[in-house]
Design goal:
2 copies of one chain form a homodimer.
Chain A (H helix, E strand, L loop, with lengths): L1 E5 L6 E5 L33 E3 L5 E2 L8 E5 L13 E4 L2 E5 L3 E6 L11 H18 L7 E8 L11 E7 L4 H17 L3 H12 L3 E4 L3 E4 L10 E5 L12 H22 L5 E6 L14 E6 L6 H6 L2 E3 L3 H9 L3
Parallel strand pairs in A: 2-16
Antiparallel strand pairs in A: 1-2, 3-4, 3-5, 5-8, 6-7, 8-10, 9-10, 9-14, 11-12, 12-13, 13-15, 14-15
Helix pairs in contact in A: 1-4
Amino acid sequence: MIELRKDPISSRSVIINDTRDFQFELDDTVDEIPMCPFCVGNEKLIPSPIVCYDKNGNKIDKYNKNWRVKVIPNNKPILTIEGNISRKAEGLYDRMTGVGAHEILIESQEHQEQNLKPEDFILNILAVQDRINDLKNDLRLEYILVFKNHGKNAGSTITHPHFQLVALPIIPRSVKEEMTISKKYYDFKERCLFCDIIDQEIAFGTRVVMETNSFISLVPFASRYPFETRILPKEHLEDFRNLRDKHKIEELAEMITSVFRRLRKALGKNVPYNLVLHSYPLKQDRIPHYHWYIEVIPKITKFSGFEFGSGLYVNPVIPEEAAKFLKEAE
Amino acid sequence: MIELRKDPISSRSVIINDTRDFQFELDDTVDEIPMCPFCVGNEKLIPSPIVCYDKNGNKIDKYNKNWRVKVIPNNKPILTIEGNISRKAEGLYDRMTGVGAHEILIESQEHQEQNLKPEDFILNILAVQDRINDLKNDLRLEYILVFKNHGKNAGSTITHPHFQLVALPIIPRSVKEEMTISKKYYDFKERCLFCDIIDQEIAFGTRVVMETNSFISLVPFASRYPFETRILPKEHLEDFRNLRDKHKIEELAEMITSVFRRLRKALGKNVPYNLVLHSYPLKQDRIPHYHWYIEVIPKITKFSGFEFGSGLYVNPVIPEEAAKFLKEAE
């Protein structure tokens, strides 16, 4: 199959082409530092925590050894918490002070990703929500990007499982694009684009990896990467923070764990990946056209000048086949 | 410095942050295949040539051993030359047949990139122009992306220097964005955005790597990658094919060679990189707002979930410092 497909959420075109040779790079190691800074006992290597959570997701004393999730400031942040936002011109150029926040959310005391359990993800979900709620009070911030790198190919430098939260003074490009496109769709159809996609995927069935009462995971029609997976709430919900129902959070944690298990079973236990949470900008009013979701992208192929120069992607695995593979992997 | 900068051509935001640790990956090797398919004597490994050029840039017999530039079809093309363009819906999704062309332009009989001379680049420029002129006759095509991968990190699988031409049935996303933005600027200012950037860069001087009568190379104000370089004609010219003046072509070839020499001198001889030609879509009328350019991007850093999820970039090298380094590297 050689086919161009367009992703309705981002309007990105992808070339699906399974006739080309490719080699997956299945290595999730990083250039390991001798002492893991996130393991218990090595606290002197990292900044003092912002907050710690216990096994019920409640805040506990920062120095309590029984933490289940710990949040620390990144000591080499992408953006810095100090200073005011100021915008300046340099001739026709635009510059802005690099104000924001960059936090590390240590997912568990466990050093190995594979050993994490759904309970750990429940606590991570609660911690992420709590951090977003806290950072939202800082009126300089517009968006909080929550993501995760696993393996060197995915940009990670530390093995111990951790999320990153980067709070930005602007709405990032990818989010802006999704907001604009889903708004256009809503204006035209008076329905949420994401809800329509979910209904359609359930009806077709060919790209669904798994479905529970409240969530669905699927391989996107126009996947950029082999085995890319999206996890969406079936019910319309624009903001990840508004997922408050305990049972639903448990269901989501189960689904995330299952997607990882399937990816490891399908591709091998050392699959490097990125995870990204797509959610609502902080200062927007409630809007009917956006719908939060999680994206899991195995980073097992390389980019070339083609992707870089065109903004298009070439995916050597047919999404329906990837979905079948992942569906049957459990 | 931690600063957000916006690229006026693409409207992309970049975080310039030189306070973070980073490690450059300076390895341009590829997983070498035993016999180079592009070296003389191994012709049986590749498809029959589309066209060959002699030392004056003239077409010669396909089987003449004295070729200086040889163009072959990619035997595992991204898009296929056969078939008609047809667009179909699948529910709310859009798909399109993968029609296009994918050619490999072997730059020289020389196997090692570093040994290429300005004369080789002159012949490559002429050959690229000739191939675009030929492919333009195929009315199914909308854009020809010319690019080059060097080193495994840049997506290359073959050491022997070669360009790739992918002829697309759509105008790719990146080009569309640049066209839209430069058009808006033109409508507002009645001047070419690129020409304004060039004038401003010459006036500031801090990001200029080198300047000749007709060309300028500079490190962009909002570089996404360390040591990223753009080469632009100083005179307004929207279409690369319209660069016909022999002396100017020589000047450009000299500048490309010099940029590579500087990159190798500054970063080491094994720097992996992508090169991309940004030029005019095939079917547009002449427009005053676009301006062709060449982009050279060393691929020495890794992407993480941050870049992936936000569409923003983090560059650990201040563009003005990169420019100074490259300027002084010769």
